[in-house]
Amino acid sequence: MSAFKPDQAHGALATSSEYARYDQVGKRDYHLAEMADDGDAFDDAFEFATCDLSQYIHGSVDERAAFVEQLGTAMREIGFAILEGHGVDTDLWVQAENWVDLLFTESSLEEKMRYRAERHGAVSEGYFPLHETSAIHPDLVEGWVFGRRAFDLDESPDFDATTLWPQPELEPLFRQLIEAELPLFRPIMSAILEGLGVSAGLFDAKLDRPNLGQRLNYYPPLGAEEQASGAGRLLGHEDIDLFTLLPAPTVDGLQVLHRSGKWIRLNAPQGSIILNTGDYLQRISNDTLPSTTHRVSPPSNIADCERPRFSFPLAAYLRPDEVLTVLPNTGSPKYKPINVVTFHTRTTAKFYGDDYAVEGDPVPDQI
User: Fold this and answer.
1) Second label for 219, Cα 20 to 30 Å away, from 105, 191, 316, 334?
2) Closest by alpha carbon to 206, among 325, 288, 286, 118?
3) Is residue 172 part of a domain?
4) Which residues of the chain fall short of a pLDDT of 50?
């Protein structure tokens, strides 16, 4: 393994307030890494809401209303919920673990580095080596982000998988995941909007051929050195998107920071989807829906440290030239309208360096 960079070594001790200048929405303060002295407080009594999405997609008026209320309450409280009744073939997720394993272990580091992540639009797409998901913390994970352009979703005659995939034969396999989960974007966003008292169809056009980020994470087995290093598998962070869909991983470790300041372990049932809101949605909901801090920690069962961990969250983005504007019925706006590319890159500059931030076209002052 490569040695930690000086700023990354500090990141294992840092608090989020040290990087607050990058945030474009209000955030609470927390330690980026887990407390080496077991100083983190946990709430083991909290239960995440489990919501049946089929109630909203196929249910009666009353069932739809009940789903909107249940989901809205969960997202306002902690920004996370567990979805069942989503209709996705869960065998795809079983197979996807093998595909992620192939992508990361059957390609040499030299080959993977040919696809090193770079900004495309607002999002950094491509390969992130071990320890280099973030410039501020030595995460114990390899990552790969594939945007919409990496998938032949539109059957373009010019599509060439070899330009973005080290193993092009994996593209149609992962495309199955995208095509199975994309239809969930609209009903989820519609239910969220209804819960805010906004027209359910307000984002339908924005989610037609939507911008997306399919992140693939490979967490290698943890040896004694890694467990003692002070580095987590993935540091405390918030997602920068509308929302994220995460098929429940088979190896646990996901922890969520409640507004009480206590961490909560989220162990969702196999076959379910973990839903969480991101910074885009916190901004446009005028802080009604929090973009909640979460992290990936070593598994609770020490034997599972010897197993790799796989995850494949799908982020619902907006196009870089669109504008984030506070929604009606959410109170006096706390935030001015801002271009997605400006908002996104200013925030993620804390992970990638100050020169990552770019400015979009000026947005008329509407506040």
Assistant:
1) 316
2) 325
3) yes
4) 1-2, 36-37, 367
